[in-house]
Amino acid sequence: MKISDEAKLLITDALASNNCDCLQVVLKKSCCGTSLNFVPIKLKAGDSAVSIDGISVMMDDQVKARVEKVTLAVEDGELIIQDDAPSCCG
Questions:
Q1: Which residue, 31, 49, 57, 62, is most buried by CB atoms nearer than 10 A?
Q2: Domain residue spans in the chain?
Q3: Contacts of 17 (CB under 8 A, 6+ apart)
Q4: pLDDT over 60 at 87, yes or no
Q5: 44-78, pLDDT tens digit by residue?
Q6: Do the Cβ atoms of 59 and 25 come closer than 8 Å?
Q7: Long-range contact set of residues 46-50: C-beta below 8 Å, sequence gap at least 24
Q8: pLDDT, position 29
Q9: CA gap 50, 61 in Å, rounded
Q10: Contacts for 65-72: CB closer than 8 Å, 24+ residues apart
Q11: What is the number of other CB atoms lying within 10 angstroms of the CB of residue 76?
Q12: DSSP states of 2-37 as a string?
């Protein structure tokens, strides 16, 4: 996963305003398989996060494989997920 500089600013602000210090990425069942779900969290003792472009991110191995080609970016002032994985959900 990559995080653009603009996205990093939006994520950092969102984490701070929610009193969180990490972005958790989980897979969630959707209409045609799984989709990525991003949740701001507060790390607890023993949690293992990685730093991606300066943002603490927590995810399991299954998610790591899924986000290899994902980029978090900003378009028209909004955070977007650029994902090369095929999706039937438009």
A1: 57
A2: 2-83
A3: none
A4: no
A5: 998 989 999 999 999 998 899 889 889 999 999 99
A6: yes
A7: 47/22, 49/22
A8: 82
A9: 12
A10: 66/27, 66/34, 66/36, 67/1, 67/25, 67/36, 68/1, 70/1, 70/2, 70/36, 71/1, 71/2, 71/3, 71/4, 72/1, 72/2, 72/3, 72/4, 72/7, 72/11, 72/38
A11: 5
A12: EE-HHHHHHHHHHHHHTT--EEEEEEEEETTEEEEE
CATH of domain 2-83: 2.60.300.12
| Token code pair at residue 2 | 């990559």
How much is the pLDDT for 83?
A: 84
In terms of Cβ atoms closer than 10 Å to its own Cβ (0-12, 13-18, 19+), residue 53 is: middle
pLDDT exceeds cutoff 90 at 1:
yes
- Model pTM score: 0.83
Residue type, 38: F
Instruction: Give CA angle at 11 (63, 57), nearest 5°.
Output: 30
Tokens for 41, please give them: 């969290």
